[in-house]
Amino acid sequence: MTYVQGQTGEWEMVIGLEVHAQVTSKAKLFSGASAAFGGAPNAHVSLVDAGFPGMLPVINKYCVEQAVRTGLGLKAQINLTSVFDRKNYFYADLPNGYQISQFTQPIVGKGEIILDLEGGKSRTVGITRLHLEQDAGKSMHDQSPTETFVDLNRAGVALMEVVSEPDMRSGEEAAAYLKKLRAIVRYLGTCDGNMEEGSMRCDVNISMRRVGVETLGTRCEIKNVNSIRFVMQAIDYEAQRQVEILEGGGTIKQETRLWDTGKGITRAMRSKEEAHDYRYFPDPDLLPLVLDAAWVEAIKKTLPELPDEKKQRFISAYGLTDYDASVLVAEKASADFFETVATGRDGKLAANWVTSELFGALNKMGKTIEESPISGLALGGLIELISNDTISGRIAKDVFAEMLTTGNPAAQIVEEKGLRQVTDMGAIGAEIDKILAANADKVAEYRAGKDKLFGFFVGQVMKATGGKLNPAMLNETLKEKLKG
Ligand code: ADP
Ligand code: MG
């Protein structure tokens, strides 16, 4: 557990996250207008989104299905009856004067997310709820010196708000939570999880308490943090700020704060006293949302294998370590790539090549796994050559480098460059004899007890043969011959 060291002792962070995840849907939550990212301002606006009098919202069944899928993916309770409420407030980018959301009866209740932490450790964080709501439009203050423009393209786009229990205790845990939540929605295809484009946004709630104390301290909420790195930075800054106030004898004001990316600080935005009174009430334009239990069951049957299950299968089926399995399942594309490489081959070897060599190379090139110049099948081909002793692991690295630049298959490179490993005992013996004859003095020293020289002989033989001798056979034969 990581505690925050103050002047007068240690403090514990208490963190709860609220994540807005945009539903991957062609149309908005209550209208048929396009929910696509971008587009000319106000190109994706229907009369419903613009709040014209007499317009009625019609629920988008596809969005409801995505919320249910996400709920099931979070192992959460699905509420067969939920209610849409009006959350009332005035703002220029909210033409109706209210946002349709869910308050007392959300579509999804309690669930959980398992965090994968350092050293193969894991921890379960409770999910309080998931509800469906509309996004708002956007006011643009920077287009003209005298006017503000409003773009309603996002107004009415479906969001899932996922609220966690205050179960996290460090910035790392918050990061692990966001990564896992993002992986789950991406596996499910219910949200693209793209924080840069704003399709996943995070409000961070944080309070501090003395180590050992059970009761929760007063929290602050940092609104709309748009990257995992900023979430971690905001948490560390805010924890320090709150500890300084508490140790100075002050009290924390419950308030909403903003993360200032440029300065690396949080700033007060509004206090609880100024907080909105949203006057929630059930939207009279919408009936309660009643789901058919059989429909929910049918959706459950279509769920893909999710990261936690995939990780367990990778560990048991391929003999991977907890760590390697976590790394590979973090992105579905990496997991799929690994399976292509590993199927019918040595799983551990495949995991090593994917996580160290391939990820390392992609990192250097600034490429994603989808853009890998070496396909899963091609890397599998290389691994086969190692497994069946055609080439050594050392030579395989050279072949891999060649595959990266030329895109040629491993077998072709090995043949063209004559890299096939020498496994012929006679040939290996002959190479060793040559080296021993040329280094008679060293041989004498070795036989007199200077064991360390063994490595020297291996190096000399390898150098003379371009590293092509089978290392195990070389070691064995060399030992024999050195005995004299
Ligand atoms: P609101 O609706 O005002 O945002 P909620 O009670 O729904 O308040 O809580 C929102 C988030 O704040 C949840 O993720 C919850 O876990 C977290 N939270 C609540 N109390 C605390 C606290 N004392 N410290 C840290 N996080 C908290
Ligand atoms: Mg909140």
Write the layout of secondary structure elements.
Layout: E1 4-5, E2 10-22, H1 61-73, E3 81-82, E4 85-88, E5 98-101, E6 111-116, E7 122-134, E8 138-140, E9 149-151, E10 158-164, H2 171-188, E11 200-210, E12 220-225, H3 228-247, E13 255-260, E14 265-271, E15 281-282, E16 289-290, H4 293-301, H5 307-318, H6 322-329, H7 332-342, H8 347-365, H9 376-387, H10 393-406, H11 410-416, H12 425-438, H13 440-447, H14 453-464, H15 471-483
Parallel strand pairs: 12-13
Antiparallel strand pairs: 1-2, 2-10, 2-11, 3-16, 4-5, 4-15, 6-7, 7-10, 8-9, 11-12, 13-14
Helix pairs in contact: 2-3, 5-6, 6-8, 7-8, 7-9, 9-10, 12-14, 12-15
Bound molecules: adenosine-5'-diphosphate and magnesium ion.
Residues 14-18, 163-166, 205-207, 216-217, 219 line the site of adenosine-5'-diphosphate.
Q: What is the strand content?
A: 15-25%
| Number of alpha- plus pi-helical segments | 15
Bound molecules: adenosine-5'-diphosphate, magnesium ion
Ends distance: 58 Å
Low-confidence stretches: none
* Shape, per Cα inertia axes: elongated
Whole-number mean pLDDT: 94
- Secondary structure: number of strands: 16
Largest beta-sheet details: 9 strands, mixed
Class inferred from helices and paired strands: alpha+beta
Please indicate the count of domains.
3
Helix content: 25-40%
Radius of gyration: 30 Å
